[in-house]
Amino acid sequence: MYQTIYDVVEKRGRVKTGILLNGKDAGLKYLLEESSFFYPEGAERNKEAEEFLKASVEAAVETGVVKNGDREIFVETYEKNPRLIILGGGHVSLPVAEIGRMLGFHVTVMDDREEFVTEKRFPMADERIFGEFDTLADRIPPYENAYYVVVTRGHLGDSACARAILKRPFAYFGMIGSRTKVRITREKLLKEGFTEEQLDQIHAPIGLPIGGQMPAEIAVSIMAEIVQEKNRHFRTYCDEEVEAAVRRRTPGTMVTIIEKKGSSPRGTGSKMFVFRDGSMAGSIGGGKVEFEAKHAVNIRNTETKVYELGQGGRRSGDDLRRNCPGAF
Q1: What is the pTM (predicted TM-score) of this model?
Q2: CB neighbours (10 Å) of residue 47?
Q3: Contacts for 109-113 with beta carbons within 8 Å, 24 or more apart?
Q4: How far apart are CA 315 and CA 267, in angstroms?
Q5: Which of 69, 56, 79 is nearest to 8 (CA)?
Q6: What is the pLDDT of residues 262-309, one digit of tens each?
């Protein structure tokens, strides 16, 4: 399963999974983006448990334990490689691209004026696209973890961009402009059949209200809102060491913190991969907690186990089991 998770998150930027922690179907896992279920070895298929797990994962908004009646589900949202897509290459776009790059975003800039998307003008951008905004759907592939900043020079460009963005997944969609410009664009889209609910997803006017007037100040307000939105819900950090261990397809055990209380250097969703020889990749906090987790791994056990470890609160082994070659 983990091999699939990392493949999908690399391609789409976001993946949501869930695992039943207790009851007779404990260990059943679900990968939302692939609509795939993964059963522990030897378990029989249970349609009711599948539907329950699927509904629980779809309803959850962040990484953590969800309790539904006497059942517990650990839901994880994995995110990596956030993309900042700036539509319009004007004066505000320059500092937005600079700050976005500084914050670790993959930056794309698109404009319908060739001289506004040159390498000289946007050396910090990873991708520069020259083309009409109504070709956006063909020029920029859909991506779950995408943050769109619409800063075109007129409502025609705004409408073309909004039309394409609202038909695809996105993490954020903000549009610059006066209230009149925003109203005209909104009214036009409503007449085209878009709903109020869809249009309410647009951050317009764009940015946090910090009173910025200069392009750099406006860019700060835009990126501040994006960072706020990006961190609104807790997500699972994709540890590169753990991902590399999974991709090597070496048999081992994945250990995950599903819940914690008190102080701890690592939070919910932190992972550590324990190889058969006892070596490890990644970390769930070091010290006693890691020592206990390593010894809790029983290579003869083929079922998911949940453990109370250390004094920092509840931590657990998600999928504390022996993984055979190709299990991921």
Answers
A1: 0.80
A2: 8
A3: 110/85, 110/86, 110/136, 110/139, 110/140, 111/87, 112/157, 113/89
A4: 10
A5: 79
A6: 666 677 888 888 888 888 888 887 777 777 777 777 544 444 565 555
